[in-house]
Amino acid sequence: MNIPSRSEFDQNHPVRTAVIKVASRCNLACTYCYIYEMADQSWRRQPQVIDTTTIEAIAKRLAEYAQYRSLSALIVVAHGGEPLLIGPERLAHFFTTISHGLDTVGCETHLGVQTNGTLLSMEAVQKLKSRKVHIGISLDGPPKVNDEHRVDKHGIGTSGAVLDGLSRLREATNSRPLLGGFLSYADISVPPIVQLDYFIELGAAQVDFLFPNFNHDTLPKEYRNGALGRWMIQLFNLWMDRSNQLEVRTFTVIMRLLLGGKFGYESFGAESQKTIAVEPDGTYHASDVLKSAYEGVTSTGMDVWHHEIREVESMPLIAATSSKAVSAANECLACPIFSVCGGGLVAHRYSKAQGFNRVSVYCEDIKLLVRHIMDRLKKELMGRPDVTVSVSSFSAYSHRV
Ligand code: SF4
Q1: By Cβ atoms counted within 10 A, which residue in 136, 234, 248, 273 is the most buried?
Q2: Which residues line ligand 1 (CB under 6 A)?
Q3: Which residues form the Radical SAM core domain (predicted)?
């Protein structure tokens, strides 16, 4: 595996997604939250919500960068904390200001918001609809499952409020288009069919099952290697029978990579589109899922007031989450499925002793899952000589798992 030099990497990988933290606080208290419940507590020093001047400064930096990179399109996602805490009016102003800035340099804007779904009032829905903002909702499955961890500040489950918000969304849009998809944690204590069928019944177009945010120092001692992989395999088999009903991003991305696709996303693939995050105080950061590792891990030391995005994009910290070879352990670089796995989510590689230079805590799970999907793909594609499953050394590898 060749490790690209930084200049080569930067040239080929402009920032394609800007995640803007418009609120640093949340109205929920989910037990597993990587922002509030894990190592990095820097949210405490952030303003509660972004102000107008910072929004304008961000819009200027994004437009300047789009022009410098001749970008035809940029994805801009409002994130938090809970982004709807800034209120429908200010959120609408945020999206309008950002789109206007990018419009002036001929860059199309794809807008999104990632929300816990509990504050989707009709006013908020209408404002998001009028600006064509795609809405991603975090929900862990049926109420009994979701409400175990996704609770409010009093420990009360939040499914009811999310489902009310979803009804308003449906009422206003009358179809799926604005609903970008669901993010759900893979919970191996729940039968996969329960989680999968719930999202189908909900009419979801897409769901992603995220691996719980553990690293080598925090993985529960009772966790048995391969348990999550086996759970995901069961889910995959069920999904294959129902795949015309919704997309499960984890599986479609793995299949695409096995068939020779280049780009994955944060969780899978050796390469993914580069992302930059901006906190409410205007400071630039790397992907916030790294916050499960240690205090200050995402900080670049640069901000929208003094620095252009082109100065930040070349930092190894930013590159590490999109070109995984930049930061992967030697064992991963030599792994036959590195192009599909990418060493997993960077946050899952961390240990205090070795930093991010380790295999994922879910290494065995990923190997099991990828091997299973590969075998299934081969079976499904038998008699299709025009299609090649691309991990050529996989058969040698599969004996070692
Ligand atoms: S399967 Fe394991 S060794 Fe291979 S790339 Fe992924 S984390 Fe690294």
Answers
A1: 248
A2: 331-332, 335, 337-338, 341, 343-344, 359-360, 363, 366-367
A3: 12-241
Query: Do the Cβ atoms of 389 and 378 come closer than 8 Å?
Result: yes
Side chain identity, residue 9:
F
Burial of 154 (C-beta count, 10 Å sphere; 0-12/13-18/19+): exposed
pTM, 2 dp: 0.89
Give which of 230, 220, 240 is closest to 369, Cα–Cα.
230
Q: Decide if 182 contacts 136 (C-beta within 8 A).
A: yes
- CATH of 12-326 among 2.60.120.590, 1.10.3720.10, 3.20.20.70, 3.40.50.2300: 3.20.20.70
Please tell me whether residue 348 adopts helix, strand or coil conformation. Answer: helix
Q: What is the pLDDT of residues 309-350, one digit of tens each?
A: 999 998 888 888 888 888 899 999 999 999 999 999 999 999
Residue indicated by tokens 């930013």: 318
- Best mutation site among 225, 257, 360, 401 for ligand 1 pocket (most ligand atoms within 8 Å of CB): 360
